[in-house]
Design brief:
alpha+beta
Length: about 200
């Protein structure tokens, strides 16, 4: 078995190992608004729900060419964002929004998806998404010395879920067809190969 001392590896090799092993990762398709009113939409697979009470999600974001990404800048300015759940039917549009583009480019338009403003936060979400979270930032924590990434901790204020996915408050994972990310360009969906294990009492 190979053993790696991560502090001794370069950032690319660390990224390959971690994203190849911690899989599949859910994708936060984050909608924000810039100071100039331009909508921003970008996918982040360093994302998860860490608490139901209080309802809390976390997102990890890095930098681009030494500067914060547009999403992080917008979060700092507005304190709010949305997460559209990426499903198989919008996966190609999500991939389009992963391209590095200038801040004045509206990725909703570029990807051909509908921007719908949140009901409790002033940020847009993907109208074609089967489910969406509206979130308010609690903390943005720098990671590293000097910071090379940031951890965003946020409260989930509102959920929107397609009616046909729900049985009360239980979500049908197969119908959701949520997309998870592996390393590189590899993805999976919750409709692929689901199996059930009963938890012991």
């Amino acid at each position: 078995m190979a053993t790696f001392n991560l502090p001794e590896l370069d950032s690319v090799d660390r990224y390959k190992l971690l994203t190849g092993l911690i899989v599949p990762r859910p994708i936060a398709w984050i909608g924000t608004v810039g100071r100039d009113g331009v909508h921003n939409l970008a996918p982040y697979s360093f994302f998860n729900c860490v608490s139901a009470t209080p309802p809390t999600v976390v997102v990890g974001t890095g930098h681009r060419s030494g500067a914060p990404k547009d999403t992080l800048s917008n979060l700092r300015d507005t304190g709010v964002f949305t997460v559209s759940i990426v499903t198989e039917d919008v996966a190609k549009a999500m991939n389009i929004t992963s391209e590095n583009v200038a801040p004045h480019v509206d990725e909703f338009v570029k990807a051909g998806v509908t921007a719908v403003m949140g009901t409790t936060v002033s940020a847009p979400y993907v109208g074609e998404a089967k489910a969406t979270l509206e979130c308010e930032v609690n903390h943005i924590l720098p990671l590293g010395e000097p910071a090379t990434s940031w951890l965003v901790i946020a409260d989930v204020r509102t959920l929107h879920v397609a009616d046909d996915l729900l049985d009360g408050t239980r979500v049908d994972a197969k119908r959701l067809e949520a997309v998870g990310r592996f390393a590189g360009g590899q993805y999976c969906t919750t409709a692929d190969g689901l199996f059930t294990l009963e938890r012991p009492d």
